[in-house]
From TrEMBL:
<dbReference type="GO" id="GO:0031267">
    <property type="term" value="F:small GTPase binding"/>
</dbReference>
<feature type="compositionally biased region" description="Acidic residues">
    <location>
        <begin position="287"/>
        <end position="297"/>
    </location>
</feature>
<feature type="region of interest" description="Disordered">
    <location>
        <begin position="267"/>
        <end position="306"/>
    </location>
</feature>
<dbReference type="InterPro" id="IPR050302">
    <property type="entry name" value="Rab_GAP_TBC_domain"/>
</dbReference>
<feature type="domain" description="Rab-GAP TBC">
    <location>
        <begin position="343"/>
        <end position="529"/>
    </location>
</feature>
<dbReference type="Pfam" id="PF00640">
    <property type="entry name" value="PID"/>
</dbReference>
<feature type="domain" description="PID">
    <location>
        <begin position="1"/>
        <end position="62"/>
    </location>
</feature>
<feature type="coiled-coil region">
    <location>
        <begin position="610"/>
        <end position="637"/>
    </location>
</feature>
<feature type="compositionally biased region" description="Low complexity">
    <location>
        <begin position="841"/>
        <end position="853"/>
    </location>
</feature>
<dbReference type="Pfam" id="PF12473">
    <property type="entry name" value="DUF3694"/>
</dbReference>
<dbReference type="InterPro" id="IPR022164">
    <property type="entry name" value="Kinesin-like"/>
</dbReference>
<protein>
    <recommendedName>
        <fullName>Rab-GAP TBC domain-containing protein</fullName>
    </recommendedName>
</protein>
<keyword id="KW-0343">GTPase activation</keyword>
<dbReference type="InterPro" id="IPR006020">
    <property type="entry name" value="PTB/PI_dom"/>
</dbReference>
<dbReference type="GO" id="GO:0005096">
    <property type="term" value="F:GTPase activator activity"/>
</dbReference>
<dbReference type="InterPro" id="IPR035969">
    <property type="entry name" value="Rab-GAP_TBC_sf"/>
</dbReference>
<dbReference type="Pfam" id="PF00566">
    <property type="entry name" value="RabGAP-TBC"/>
</dbReference>
């Protein structure tokens, strides 16, 4: 019961006096701050000593109320030294330009970390639990690798504001540090994280301090002539909470509530509300985000999360449009373009994309795809190499040999076989991967074919990318018309359109941008055609014009490669981009195309004829080589077809020989079956005749037995009449005896005496009648028994004859069934067909017509 009350609501507690009747009672007052009600609870204990224990527990609980959190600070300094090949270590140089350390690979290094306590809280640094290192940033604790400790000198150990220095050996040959031991390319840097675990006497768990920095890896023999020395420092703020003291420890103990670094605090303090909102939309934590200027890591393809939530109103609008569209597939319903520009709901994208491409019922292409994936492609090695680079940030394509990579491999290989003029080109796999995320691979292949052929996207890969250069020229002229200041800025810096827009045209923005933006671009692309690519490209430049005007040559290229894709992880930026793109008016594309062709002709006329002929010769040579390859493939296919046909002909010949042998055996078996059929017909006729005779005999016997039965019935009726007569006589005799007895007892005996004198004679006649009746009765009973015996024998013979008749009928039905089965078999029909086709047909044996006797 006591555990149900919250400690912080108890205001007062007391117990009864020892010399009173309340000595085994205690009470406390409880407050309800939200309602302003106070309650007093009184309890009585069965055991008197339990009251003391309860009050003691209350005392300990009130003493252990946690105090307010304590704030303490610590400063962490990290540095690194390289092996100088002289038995010592030299300080690692610091590059001021790129703000990173300069490291040489294959050299042993040592990491030095110095921890200084800067607050006045009495904390004792007992020892170092471990020094850890790992490549990368924002890493998990489990990704850190423990370094071997070299030595641990301590300054002012155990005092307030004590300092501890930790040194760890960094073995460059360890596989965990392979990335930090690989030479970096020019202009690139790698991140590394250093952590130190300290054991503090006043804190129960070890405390980890983590610091991140950047580095460049140079060859072992690299010389650094101008460099600076820098020690990386970071200020940490620990928020501690005092814990409940125990009997064994007399000092105050704490537990860590949070650890914040100065860098992390500065980022949060400088972040605006919009920046926080952007974090919420992109579903990333503050630790995962870095300033765009502080990293050169581009956004991986296939990254980003797509919002699958949709309002009921939008779903109802799409449901109405799709119902009208399915009813009439020949034309698009009104209001469809407006809905598409607002974004297709993710669950409906697969179906809507197929309807927009016009391949929702293309069964012929589906069957063709199943044939194409069985053929070999000369570019399989290139396709297999590019599969691993496509959408590495997406879980569906991340696993090597998984379902996603296998489907992507099949669909790109099938296209390279289907379109042999273009084959496989880099960038095609990104578009196919985006389609595979919304539909099965067969439907994705059909939509890919429609995009490549109907929207003329395959022209970008033909004729030495001539059509792609036309797109660059049109985009450049459009920038000059719509954004002249940005055009002049690009011209002064030497920025050309092909430097940043080639992947935009070749992959439909699928290679670098997040999926949330990619899907909406494909939505409007399938709805409005290839001009939307120019609109989206111009929309990107217009939305980022202010940032681009403030950057130099390298900054602009870095912005297009890194910051611009990361910008559109936000749904707000994506919606603004689509609205800007569809609102742009592009009307001079045909004119720009004519100008491009005119300039090309002019440059061709001004070009040296020898150079032009060499280029033409090179193009023809490439076409010749391509045709040679196609010819070799066709010849190989022809030889393979001939070999296959020869093998099939041999198999067919063997099948024909086997069929001829089977036919001969069938003919012999047919002759035997005809003879057997004739024999069965003769036997059937004989059985019918026997059955008819037996049935006639049985009919005669039945008639005789019927006569016997009639005679028996007649005799029985006669016997019944005689029996009735005898019963009448017996009644008269009984009556006579009764009268006689009455007369003998009567007093008037005179009239009767005369009759009594004649009594003997009367009695004699009565005895004669009785004897005669007995004899007749015996003879009749004997005659009845004889008739019953004769009737029983007749019934037995009748039953035997019926059984014989049933047996004969069963045999007759079996003979009929066997005869019908012999007549109706497929083999009999085949034999009949073969006999009718002979030039001199043999006489056909007709089965006799069965008659029912």
């Amino acid at each position: 019961v006591m555990t149900s009350f919250k400690l912080y609501t108890i205001l007062f507690c007391c117990r009864g006096a020892d010399d009173s009747v309340e000595k085994d009672c205690f009470a406390f007052t409880e407050s309800h701050q939200s309602s302003g009600i106070f309650q007093c609870h009184v309890f009585r204990c069965e055991v008197h000593e339990a009251v003391r224990k309860v009050l003691y527990s209350f005392e300990l609980a009130f003493r252990s109320i946690p105090k307010s959190p304590v704030q303490t600070d610590a400063k962490l300094s990290a540095g690194a030294q390289l092996d100088d090949s002289k038995g010592g270590y030299a300080t690692v140089p610091w590059d001021k330009t790129s703000s990173c350390f300069k490291l040489r690979h294959n050299l042993e290094k040592q990491v030095i970390v110095k921890v200084v306590q800067t607050s006045n809280v009495d904390l004792t640094l007992e020892r170092c639990f471990g020094l850890l290192l790992t490549p990368g940033r924002n890493v998990k604790h489990s990704d850190m690798h423990l370094l071997d400790m070299n030595h641990t000198p301590v300054d002012d150990e155990g005092g307030i504001g004590g300092t501890r220095t930790v040194v760890g050996l960094w073995d460059p040959s360890h596989p965990h540090f392979a990335l930090l031991n690989t030479e970096t390319q020019k202009g690139t840097r790698v991140f590394l994280s250093v952590a130190v675990d300290l054991v503090v006497q006043e804190i129960q768990e070890p405390v980890r301090f983590l610091i991140e920095t950047k580095a460049r890896i140079f060859p072992q023999a690299e010389k650094f002539w101008y460099f600076g020395k820098k020690i990386l420092q970071e200020q940490f703020y620990l928020k501690l909470k005092e814990t409940i003291p125990t009997k064994t420890l007399n000092r105050t103990m704490y537990e860590v509530e949070s650890i914040e670094s100065e860098t992390w605090r500065n980022k949060w303090s400088s972040s605006s509300n919009d920046h926080h909102h952007h974090h919420a939309l992109s579903s990333t934590s503050p630790q995962d985000e870095e300033d765009d200027d502080d990293t050169d890591e581009p956004l991986l393809s296939g990254s980003g999360e797509v919002n699958k939530e949709c309002t009921e109103r939008v779903l109802s609008d799409w449901g109405e449009v799709l119902s009208r569209w399915r009813a009439d597939l020949s034309r698009r319903p009104t209001g469809l373009r407006t809905l598409i520009r607002a974004g297709i709901p993710d669950p409906l994208r697969g179906e809507v994309w197929q309807l927009l491409a016009g391949c929702h019922e293309n069964q012929q292409m589906l069957e063709k795809y199943r044939v194409l994936i069985t053929k070999d492609s000369p570019q399989e090695n290139i396709i297999q190499r590019d599969i691993h680079r496509t959408f590495p940030a997406n879980d569906y394509f991340k696993t090597t040999g998984g379902t996603g990579q296998d489907s992507l491999y099949r669909i790109t290989k099938a296209y390279s076989v289907y379109d042999q003029e273009v084959g496989y080109c880099q960038g095609l796999s990104f578009l196919a991967a985006a389609l595979l995320l919304h539909m099965p691979e067969e439907q994705a292949f059909c939509v890919l074919i429609k995009i490549m052929f109907d929207n003329n996207m395959r022209d970008l890969f033909k004729n030495g990318f001539e059509s792609l250069h036309l797109k660059f020229y049109q985009l450049e002229r459009s920038i000059e018309e719509l954004m002249p200041n940005l055009f002049d800025h690009f011209k002064q810096l030497g920025i050309e359109c092909h430097m940043f827009s080639s992947q935009w045209f070749l992959t439909l923005f699928t290679a670098k941008f997040p999926l949330s933006m990619v899907y909406q671009v494909i939505d409007v692309y399938l709805s409005e055609g290839e001009t939307i690519v120019f609109r989206v490209a111009l929309g990107l430049l217009q939305c980022s014009r202010r940032e681009l005007l403030a950057l130099d040559f390298e900054g602009i290229l870095k912005y297009f490669r890194v910051q611009l894709p990361k910008k559109y992880r936000s749904e707000e930026h994506t919606k603004l981009l689509i609205q800007t793109a569809v609102g742009l008016k592009i009307k001079r594309m045909k004119r720009y195309e004519k100008d491009f062709l005119a300039e090309k002709e002019k440059s061709a006329l001004e070009e040296d004829p020898l150079v032009r002929m060499e280029r033409e010769n090179k193009r023809l040579m490439e076409a010749y080589l391509r045709l040679e390859l196609e010819n070799d493939d066709l010849a190989k296919e022809l030889i393979t077809s001939r070999i296959t046909l020869g093998t099939q002909l041999e198999k067919v010949g063997l099948i024909i020989c086997s069929a001829v042998e089977d036919l001969r055996g069938s003919r012999a078996e047919s002759s035997d079956l005809r003879d057997e059929n004739h024999r069965l017909l003769v036997e059937t006729a004989q059985v019918k005749e026997m059955c008819r005779k037996e049935m006639d005999r049985q009919a005669q016997e039945i008639n005789a037995k019927s006569k016997i039965v009639a005679d028996y019935k007649t005799i029985c009726s006669q016997l019944s009449l005689r029996l009735e007569n005898m019963q009448v006589l017996h009644k008269e005799h009984v009556y006579f005896n009764a009268i006689t007895s009455l007369e003998e007892n009567c007093p008037v005996r005179q009239p009767v005496q005369c009759w009594l004198n004649n009594a003997p004679s009367t009695n004699m006649s009565e005895l004669d009648r009785e004897e005669r009746h007995q004899v007749e009765k015996g003879s009749l009973e004997k005659q009845i028994r004889d008739l019953e015996l004769q009737l029983a024998q007749t019934k037995l013979k009748l039953v035997e004859s019926e059984c014989k008749v049933q047996d004969l009928e069963h045999r007759l039905a079996a003979s009929h069934k066997e005869l019908q089965a012999t007549k109706n078999t497929w083999f009999q029909k085949t034999i009949s067909t073969l006999t009718t086709r002979k030039t001199d047909p043999s006489p056909t044996v007709h089965s006799p017509t069965s008659t029912t006797p």
